[in-house]
Amino acid sequence: MEDDFDPYSLPPEVTTQPHALIGMLGLDTSNKATHKAVWEAFALNRRTDRTPLHFCHLNNDFQMPPMKQKRQSYEWYIPKGILKSNWIPKYLYHVPALVVLFYDLDWNDSSWTEKKNEVAGQVQSLKTVLGGRNSRVALVLIQSGISVPGEDTGAAEKAATLCTACDLPAKHLFVLPHSDVHLLGYTVRLENALSEIAWNFYQGEAKGVRAHRDFLNKTNHTLLFVRHQFKLGFLNEMRNDAQAAIKHYAQCYHHLLELRSTDTNLHEIRIVAAIVNYKICRLDFTLNLPRDAIAQFRRHIDLFRQRTGPKELIFEHYAWLSRQYQIFGDVFEEAVRTGLPAVQTQHPGFYYQQAAQYAVLRRKTALQVCKEVAAPVSDLLEGWSKLEFYGQRPWRPGKHSLEPPEQQREMEGIKEVQYHEVKEVNHSDFIIPLFSSAISQFKKYRCPRIKRHLMVQMAEEYHQANDSSKALTLLNHVMWDYRSEKWWSLLQSASVLGLKCAFNTAAITEYFGLALEYMGKRLSTTDEEKKRVHNNLLRLLNGVTPEPEPGTSSEILTAATEAWSTLLGAQVSPITVDMTALVPCLEVRASFQKSQYHVDQEVSVSVKIRCGTHVFGVLRRPVTKQHLRLYCSGPIFPGVVTPELCGGMKGSVPPGFIPAGLQCLTPAHLTLRNTYSCTVFLSSLSVGVSSMSHLDRLVEANPDKLVLPPGQVIEVSLHFVPHVEDVGKKLKVVDVRTQLGAPGSTVVVWLHWSGSGNEGVTMHAASAPAFPEFSVLCRDEFDTAPPLVETEILPRQPLLTVEVSYDTTALVWEWLPVKIHLTNTEASMVSDITINFGLHSSSHSNLEHATQVCSASGLQSDKLGSQVTGFTCGNLGIGEATFLVFYVKSLTSSERAYTLKIEYSVSLQLGGTVVCCPCTYEKTIQTQARIPFQVSVETQSLKFEKLARVANGESFLVVPRIKCTSHVPITLTNSSLSLAGEVYQIGTDAASHVVNTELCEGEMGVDCFCIAVDDKVVANSAVTLGQYVLYWKRSEADSVAVSVSVGLPSVVVEHWGVWVECEVAPQGTVRTPLPLAYSISNHGSHTAELALSMQVSDAFMFAGHKEVRLRVLPGCSERITYTLYPLLAGNVHLPKLSLSVESHSPGQPTSVDPLLARILPTHIYIMPQSKESDQRISLLGNNFSTLVIG
Amino acid sequence: MAVCVAVIGKENSPLYVWVGSGREELHLHYLAHTGLDVIQEKVAAVSKTPGDTRELYLGLLYASEEYKVFGYTTNTRVKFVIITDAANTTLRDNEIRMMFRRLHNMYTNVVCNPFYIPGEQITSREFDRGVAALVAGN
Predict the structure, then answer these.
(1) Which of B12, B37, B119 sits opposite A450 (nearest CB)?
(2) Min CA distance, A448 vs chain B (Å)?
(3) Whole-angstrom Cα distance, residue A546 to residue A564?
(4) Higher pLDDT pick, A77 / A24
(5) Is Transport among the key words of this record (chain A) (predicted)?
(6) Count of CB contacts below 8 A, A vs B?
(7) B37, A489: Cβ pair inside 8 Å?
(8) Interface with chain A: mutation pick from B11, B17, B33, highest number of A CBs within 10 Å
(9) What pLDDT score does A861 carry?
(10) Ranked by mean pLDDT, which of A289-298, A543-552, A875-884, A1115-1124 comes out on top?
(11) A615, A776, B4, B91: which has the fewest Cβ within 10 Å?
(12) Which pairs with CB-CB distance under 8 Å and at least 24 residues apart come from A878-883?
């Protein structure tokens, strides 16, 4: 009995794709390179788009299978079976449709005649070998040169003679020019021609088969109807006519169904049906008729599903069904690979799935039916794989009868098949690949849930096949999804299996995880089951091998027990169960009590624990209690937590701690409540806390003994002192860990929840409503209250007293003092005071450039920014006070916010240690800056008239007016002019007129300076005069004076050739002669011819030239004097002088009157005559007149 | 008549599963669960073409050798699954559709109960009775 023979699958020759067989003779591939190339061009690397042919290389001594004796009459012929197993291989491999003889012969070969005769001889001997078979013969001449048929008339003639000599039809002679370049093209053309001949052969054969039909009768030859139609189908397939083949196969299937079937011949019928069905489905898929294929397969299954065969061999039925589905799945998948689109609800996966299910059923029934099988006495199954007919029984070969010929032998045969099924077939080897095929298909067609279901089934199979570790791996993949989708029923089924697998493989971590889940209330296992698992857990904690799961077979049990004892014998390294991925019976929620803590406060974390497992009224057992030892330590950064903390807590755990706790409840109490709670010992609990700086640490506490009643929530508070480094950072609950099992027990199990306990799958275990709106209905705070996972550590609340005094209304440009009084009201010395003061960080960037801040010492510095940082202030003893001032300058009038940040450190007694704790005081102050005064500057002539044009050398006035808009009085301390280079001040000792002037809001001060522009300035150009600098401060005593520069207006400079100065006394007296002189000077380079006239005035009589012509040489001056006799008192008009220039030098005005109007006085005060005649007013001589306006 | 009726929540967790007595309960649970694959695909395919008023009845999801699985989804993505025997030919598509409508009405009544928390398992005697009547075909 071969190992790889499967009596229920298709024979390999059936599944081979039938192609026409063409034999190739005369190719010496080993010696001749051209022959090798020709052979390879034909036979190797055939692509799918080439004609479907199968070439075989024949040697000269090949033989054909012998022909059977032709039967003259079918009258007495009783067929022995349906399909002969040697027929298909015969046509596939042994009977070529065409034998091609290759021969090297050129048309112009020198020894043409001899070679022609040799070819003829070879053809003749070939025909002899072929014998009675109808195989065709073709001759191919391999030629080295390319000949064009039209050119060489001798070739056609020679071809004809060759054909005659060989007795071949002309169409069977071919020429294959051998050139490397085009060889493949020639062979493709040649093989097309050859395939025609080959297909003709199969058509002939089919005709022969069809001819038999007339001899058949319906009584004896029903089997032959099937066989002949099959042959016709197959031969049509060989000649590449799929349509005709399907027709014949369908006919064949039809005939097959008409056969009477009994338990005896059923197997043969269904094996043949499988073959025919396979052929039909495959051809349907090839012809792109997937619906037909599926319909045919459905019909096939429907027809045969009921025909189960004998009870003793029922498993054969399922084996066969499983094979059918698998074969169809394979065919379907092959079609998909070649481009058939499949959909989610119709793809090969479904067939593989069904095949797997039948394979499981096969094993199940086989185990039922063959309970008592003994090893066979005789080997009746000998030759099972080499039977003459498909599907017959090896103990009665060649017998197709409705009843078994020998009852006894039949019974023995069946026994042997049963024995074979149970002992020699490895069912898992069938089932597991089917599942994995199905899984990959369902994955491809987006059916994740079906895939998971299959994975569970596959895991079951692995478990059966004693490969529990693989099963466990598969289950782990699946269970996660069932948990997150809350399909507890499915989870339970996987969990039960998983627990078995974990037990079998002694996978202790998985065992703990699954057991904790199993005990939870989500899985609706029975109370006894939960108790059993719980007991196993307790055993395991004490280092005892757990009880086996129910249904564990004895040999597995032995292995498993051994594995457990090896595992438990050695020191078991601590186990960590990731509770986040489970739906366990223990739930925790770790939450900070507040979202913010100051660094000197104790942070408290509350851990709520809910034990979800409880079984009522089952057993009276001591209620044990949860022992919580909560601790906090810094395992990652040792020394993060102060040593006293850790040491104190760890040291307080007495030995035998847990057993003492166990006996805490009185039996009376128990009876009252009558509960049994699946106890979970927690010997410690810790919460991992992490801040941004990765300072992870565990928080530990050791509360008094706690009783955790089933289903209720126990809350444990943990406290720790945050570190100074945590200030400004967020602390986060990273994980919660509890230790299961007493300290000192063999097995240490850590339960580990990442996050605050409701992350991952664990969240699904809680019964929080899907919509938070309904949390009101769900009263369970444990489920609904979201834990505070993060808390922020704030700096310590500062106790330093800080008083800040300043004027909220600042003046633009001034240094506004901000006075800060610090008083140490802390309980200890304040050290390292550092002050940062500056513009608030959220201020607009424009303000940064328009704001200057400095400390008192930095007032004189030029580089001032908007911040003063790191201003240190030393230490302050208890109760001491200090005072400092910052100055703020606002360059624009807008609102500003400043931040004052005082950092200092203070040593504190925190949790038993003295810690240097930093504190920060922050205050924001606001100022509104306003412009203190407005300066407008005017240029005026000496007559106080507004002027925009001046002559060079002319003196004129600059008059700044300062209007105060400040809310507080300001004092102008000084002022000066900062003049441009071409401008000079008249009278260097002239001082400011506003020195120490105090102005209040609305008041105005006027300053005045006399300046002139020097001669070098180009005519008619604008000259910028310079700046007016004003020094001012608040009138308060301690303020700092600042300077403000105001730009002076610009004036246009004119050049006049002549200049006139007037000499007159500031005032005259009525009827007293008053001398008046005009001196006219020529500044130009030419001689000036001037016409001067003096107009008459009513107020005066005068003596002097009324009209005169003058000639003034360059650089000289003329003096014209008048004596005026005032007639009227008061501010009277002087006689008007008018001057015109007569020589027309270019660029000079003819009339000088506009200049005269500006520079000469027009009026003069004439006093009335005094009573005392001796009071005379002296003349001022040559001085210029200065008039002061009152 | 039907051998299994399942109400499955928005996040694909079972809210109610009824299995005919004497049936392989676990297997039917698996079938109802695996039907979600097809429902998801169908719903996703429909939601790609906006503007269509969606047909709630999704028809036959898939058929195995023994069972046929039908699906229905409400506008709030609550899914109903009804499983019948594959051999049962008395239940036509229209009858199944009517069963789903009735089931939908019954579910609406459950949700209208102010004490019912949506997304929780359905524990309602009224609903139990309704389902029992539904599968009995009267």
Answers:
(1) B37
(2) 7
(3) 8
(4) A24
(5) yes
(6) 69
(7) no
(8) B33
(9) 73
(10) A289-298
(11) A776
(12) A878/A824, A878/A826, A878/A827, A878/A828, A878/A829, A879/A823, A879/A824, A879/A825, A880/A823, A880/A824, A881/A821, A881/A822, A881/A823, A881/A824, A882/A821, A882/A822, A883/A819, A883/A820, A883/A821, A883/A822
pLDDT top residue among A697 and A99: A99
Which residues in chain A touch residue B19, judged by CB atoms under 8 angstroms apart? none
pLDDT value of residue A459: 94
Nearest to A777 among B26, B36, B115 (CB): B115
Chain A residues in contact with chain B using a Cβ-Cβ cutoff of 8 Å? 344-345, 350, 354, 357, 446-450, 453, 456, 485-487, 489-490, 493, 764, 767, 769-771, 774, 777-778
A389, A224 Cβ separation under 8 angstroms: no
Residues in chain A: 1190
Collect all residues of chain B within an 8 Å Cβ-Cβ radius of residue A485: 11-13, 33
Of residues A449, A764, A770, nearest to B33 (C-beta): A449
B87 Cα to chain A: minimum distance (Å): 12
Domains and CATH numbers, chain A: 20-208 (3.40.50), 240-427 (no CATH), 475-570 (no CATH), 580-794 (no CATH), 801-927 (2.60.40.10), 933-1054 (2.60.40.10), 1058-1167 (2.60.40.10)
Q: What is the ipTM of this complex?
A: 0.94
pLDDT tens figures, A969-1021: 888 888 888 888 888 888 777 778 888 888 888 888 888 888 888 877 777 78
Of B34, B115, B118, the CB nearest to A449: B34
Provide the shortest C-alpha distance from residue A602 to chain B (in Å): 39
| Contact assignment for A774 to B117 by CB distance below 8 Å | yes
Model confidence at B8: pLDDT above 90? yes
Residue A717 and residue A692 in contact, taking contact as beta carbons nearer than 8 Å: no
Amino acid B78: pLDDT: 92
Average of per-residue pLDDT across A11-15: 88
Burial group, residue B115, by CB count within 10 angstroms (0-12, 13-18, 19+): exposed
Q: B26 — contact with chain A (CB < 8 Å)?
A: yes
Nearest-Cα residue of chain B relative to residue A485: B13
User: To the nearest whole angstrom, how far is the Cα of B120 from the nearest Cα of chain A?
Assistant: 7
Cβ–Cβ under 8 Å, residues A8 and A266: no
Q: Of residues A689 and A936, which shows the higher confidence score?
A: A936
Are the CB atoms for A459 and A356 separated by under 8 Å?
no
Judging contacts by C-beta atoms under 8 Å, the chain B residues touching residue A487 are 13-14, 29, 33
Backbone angles phi, psi at A697, to 5 degrees: -160, 160
The single residue listed with the structure tokens 């942070």 is A603
Q: Do A777 and B117 touch (CB under 8 A)?
A: yes
Residue B57's domain comprises 2-136
Summarize the confidence of residues A216-239 as an average pLDDT: 88
Number of domains in chain B: 1
Give me chain A's average pLDDT, please.
79
* pLDDT digit string, tens, across residues A411-426: 888 888 888 888 888 8
CB A1156 within 8 A of CB A1060: yes
**Which residue of chain B is at minimal alpha-carbon distance from A453?**
B30
Using DSSP's 3-state secondary structure scheme, residue A188 falls into helix
Take residue A121 and report the two structure tokens written for it.
Answer: 């001889």
What is the rounded distance in angstroms from the CA atom of residue A462 to the CA atom of residue A1095? 137
Chain A contact present for B23, CB below 8 A: no
More confident residue, A640 or A344: A344
- Residue A48: its pLDDT value, please? 76
Domain of B17, CATH number, reads 3.30.450.70
- Of the given ranges (A158-162, A647-651, A1122-1126), which has the lowest mean pLDDT? A647-651
A489 CB neighbours in chain B (<8 A) are 14, 17, 25-26, 29
